[in-house]
Amino acid sequence: MVVRSVETTGPAETESLGAELAKGLGEGDVVLVRGELGSGKTTLVRGAARALGVRDPVTSPTFSIGHRYAAGTLTVSHLDLYRLAGLEREDPALLDDYLGPGRIAFVEWPPDAHAASSPQGELSSARVRVTLAHRGGDRRHICVDELGPSCTGAQ
Ligand code: ADP
Ligand code: MG
Questions:
Q1: Which of 57, 69, 84, 105 could form a disulfide with 77 if both were Cys (CB 3.0 to 4.6 A apart)?
Q2: Which of 21-30, 131-140, 144-153 is modeled with the greatest confidence?
Q3: Does 75 sit in the ligand 1 pocket, CB within 6 Å?
């Protein structure tokens, strides 16, 4: 089911969409955020994290697979698995610190065409999926849906 399919014209609009998306989230939720490099995944997560109460700067994880941010009584996890392309060969405990009760997790992931495999294990339980795509200049197509076979046109 496609919840929203929109085009944004700049990073502020993408942040706002993230903030709107955050309103529907609760603890334990996992949001998969797919798209090419520079399509705005981190920007969208930043907007969502702000809306959830994160005050620290939300930046791309560089030296680890993710960041965890305090947001009141909740923890907002931000994972960047863009370059991992499959979790089969990774330590199964890799994600344990980021997912689960008391946490809302955003997971950056490459678009299907570039991923060696779809998210598996704990990530297959993602409730919401966001797909971002470049549309020239500062325009981005962003599709928010429940996990399912839709959104293929947005890649
Ligand atoms: P990703 O995490 O997908 O690699 P980032 O969010 O880190 O992407 O970077 C997106 C870049 O594109 C930022 O420099 C941002 O300012 C810029 N940008 C331009 N237009 C948009 C838009 N409509 N939505 C999101 N980011 C945009
Ligand atoms: Mg990113």
A1: 105
A2: 131-140
A3: no
